Amino acid sequence: xxxxxxxxxxxxxxxxxxxxxxxxxxxxxxxxxxxxxxxxxxxxxxxxxxxxxxxxxxxxxxxxxxxxxxxxxxxxxxxxxxxxxxxxxxxxxxxxxxxxxxxxxxxxxxxxxxxxxxxxxxxxxxxxxxxxxxxxxxxxxxxxxxxxxxxxxxxxxxxxxxxxxxxxxxxxxxxxxxxxxx
Amino acid sequence: xxxxxxxxxxxxxxxxxxxxxxxxxxxxxxxxxxxxxxxxxxxxxxxxxxxxxxxxxxxxxxxxxxxxxxxxxxxxxxxxxxxxxxxxxxxxxxxxxxxxxxxxxxxxxxxxxxxxxxxxxxxxxxxxxxxxxxxxxxxxxxxxxxxxxxxxxxxxxxxxxxxxxxxxxxxxxxxx
Lengths: 182, 176
What we know:
The complex is a heterodimer of chains A (182) and B (176). Chain A folds into 2 domains: 1-95, Rna Polymerase Sigma Factor, Chain: A (Orthogonal Bundle), CATH 1.10.1740; 109-182, Winged helix-like DNA-binding domain superfamily/Winged helix DNA-binding domain (Arc Repressor Mutant, subunit A), CATH 1.10.10. Chain A contains 9 helices and no strands. Chain A has helices at 15-37, 41-58, 68-86, 88-93, 111-115, 118-130, 133-144, 149-156, 160-178. Chain B has helices spanning 7-14, 20-28, 30-51, 56-59, 63-94, 99-121, 133-136, 138-145, 166-175.
């Protein structure tokens, strides 16, 4: 699924090293996904911790050639869903909390980042937050994780037609709202 | 080209799900080709931005969204109150009046329309026949106009200035 490199972890000597490698390789991505799917940065961090706790248990039993990237994404998705379900009341009455604007991985800005203004990035995040939960999940898996529509459908347990419908609605909404700026 | 592709078909084409005819159309129609490029660019930017850490401001849930959460609750509460008040008002309007209450109301109306005007605007007291005799005495009225107000008319045993006549007093003592 999406850019999985199956043979990356084959040469790992023991499970501890496998876990560390996977943690280093995927932590920033998983935290980012949790930030996309949860409204609270602390909840996102907790969900990511939960994901890697499960990884520490699973890495001892699974083959290193296992599709860890997709597995981690799936576990992150489920963890975020569980947290959303369990904390609906907290969400209802909570006060908004600001994310710390700390880049997850230090790197030079890409050409796209340089061309997109700060206001535009804020607008995109705000609009993404306005999408339905299903649309957020589908959009993140397709355009952030770059999974295929069939992979997204399989992961979410829906039909590809349903994924396409949610995706197109999300794209249309985002593009329409950004129409004045882009 | 007479018809441009709709957004959904352009998006399907971008997802490698368009038909051959759509692809040919985009290759030949400059307007649709430009729209297709714009769509691809927008999706790339959206994906790129959402891969980055969220900007500080965007992390806040918009205030409007938080306010909107309370709007339905307030609207429902207001509608409920209005409904209850309206029902109560209608019930009061259609409620049958009891005979006892009707009689009380009739008595009140009669009191207000007959008794009070009689008491307030009665002209019986203005009848000269019922006035005190001294009020009709012209001399008495004249005295009042002149500035004085003798409390009682003079008795026969007094002088013209209403002073006691000494001779009549002596005569009365003698007779007794």
